[in-house]
Every structure is written in C-alpha cells, then in structure tokens.
Amino acid sequence: MAVAMDEALPPQAVEKGQGILPLFAWLSPSYPVGCYAYSHTLEWAVEAGDVADKEALVAWLRDQMTLGFGRNDAILLSHAYRAVEAGHEAALVNVNELALAFSPSAELYLETSQQGRSFLDATLAAWPAPGLLDLDGDVAFPVAMGMAAAAHRVPLPLTLNAYLFGLVQTLVSAAIRLAPIGQTAGIRVCSTLAPTVQEVAKQAIGLSLDDIGSATFRADLGSFHHENQYTRLFRS
After folding, report:
1. At what angle do helices 141-151 and 69-86 cross, to 10 degrees?
2. Predicted model pTM
3. CA pair distance 130, 210, nearest whole angstrom
4. Is 7 exposed, middle or buried, given 0-12, 13-18 or 19+ CB atoms closer than 10 A?
5. Is 222:41 a contact under the CB 8 Å cutoff?
6. Is 223 helix (H, G, I), strand (E, B) or coil?
7. 96-130 burial by CB neighbour count: b if 16+ within 10 A, else e?
8. Which residues contact 231 (CB under 8 A, 6 or more apart)?
9. Per residue in 19-66, pLDDT tens?
10. Cα–Cα distance measured from residue 122 to residue 125, given in angstroms and rounded to the nearest whole number
11. Confidence of residue 79 (pLDDT cuts 50, 70, 90)
C-alpha cells in the first residue's frame, strides 16, 4: 500500500462541485480501461451457439448479472466502497484479494485485474482525491471502482447502478461486434436489462462477503475453452 489509510474520510475531503461527473468520465468508452478488449466468455458462447439472437443474449446477460459475476462485482464494489469510506485499510486489502481469488480462470483474472489496474492508474492521474489509494499489485475492477467512488463521495447506490449497467453495455457492444445482433437490437437489450441491473444493485448493498457465489458454470467453463478458439476478437 503506497499511501496509508489512517482514518475515515472527512465530509469535506473532496472538492465541492464535481458531484457525479467523475462517474460519467470513469464509465465513458474513452476512459483508458480497455474494456473493449474483453467479452467475459461471450465470444465463446456465440461460437458455441448458446447466444444466437437477441432473446438468447438477454437470457445470457441476465444470468451473468443475477447469478454470476455481475452480482459478485456489486457486492465487492460495495465492500470496497465502505472500506475506503471508513478508513479500513485491512478490510480494503482483504476485499481486493477476495475479488481476485474469485476469478474462475486465467482469462477472467486478466480481465478484472488489467481493467482494475488501468482504471486506478488513470484515476489517480486525472481524478485524484484524498483517500484514493494506490494499491500495490493487481487490483480487481469493481474494487477500483468502489475505491474511487468512495473517495469522490459519489453515492454508492448510484455507483452500483452505473457500474452494472456499464457491464451490460460493454457486453452488448461485444455482441454487436460478434454479429448475433445489430445495433438497434443491442440498445433494446440494454433497455430490457435495466430493471435487472436496478434490482441487483439494490440487493447487493445489503449483502455480506459470505453471500458471494456463482451459478454460471457453463460461462465459467467457456472461459477455459475460449483460449483454444481458432480465431478470437477478444482476450476473454
């Protein structure tokens, strides 16, 4: 840990006037995180025939949000946020280690750790704030997002909704490039899944780290098969 976390952030820790603007910047496609390079096993699902149209994509992404990494990311983000908010350095380190350990495969570990490290480095450089630490080594993406949001006093419920909807939009963008759907169908998928995102975010706020778990076994196993695909557009 490069910067010590000795006490909780004071209410006036962040310069007034920014509000939720940092959140818009962080989740913009132009933010140098590299999310466009990953599909979270969707590329394999398309090749395997599991996702061939809009309805299948909705079902696949809904499962990912409610039964898989979306729900887990929301829980981890919430706990990272509270750790920074309360000034609990050990709790933050524990959440990050847990987040990285829960990656089902090497590809999915790379996905969360590369995006998390890139996000934290960019945010420290462009959006510094008292309490925003530079964790040593790998950082999981939801943990980095929770850290930044807490340091900038962006409300947790808003952060969760925006982060989860950003995941949906990223995967829909991947699906458009993989060609099972077009752009109009893609924005319809995002609209359809908006209530799911809101419900997952609402539930995650009250869940403990013991509630983390996944039932998306086929998607997790697909991440192992992805590395053997003959052609690949994405890194996961």
Report:
1. 40
2. 0.92
3. 30
4. exposed
5. yes
6. helix
7. bebbbebbbbebbbbbbbbbbbbbbebbbeebebe
8. none
9. 889 999 999 989 999 999 999 999 999 999 999 999 999 999 999 999
10. 5
11. very high
**Rounded distance, CA 232 to CA 49, Å?**
15
In one letter, which amino acid is 86?
A
Query: 223 with 90: CB under 8 angstroms?
Result: no
Question: How many whole angstroms from its chain centre is CA 130?
Answer: 23
11-29 core/surface letters (b: 16 or more CB in 10 A; e: else): eeebeeeeeeebbeebbee
CB–CB of 175/183 below 8 Å? no
Q: Count CA atoms closer than 13 A to 205's CA, side-chain side.
A: 12
Coil, strand, or helix at residue 186? helix
Tokens of 168: 């949906």
How many residues would you count in the chain? 236
**Residue 130: both structure tokens together:** 């008292």
Least Cα distance to 70 among 215, 175, 187 occurs for 215
Q: Which residue has the tokens 């458009």?
A: 176
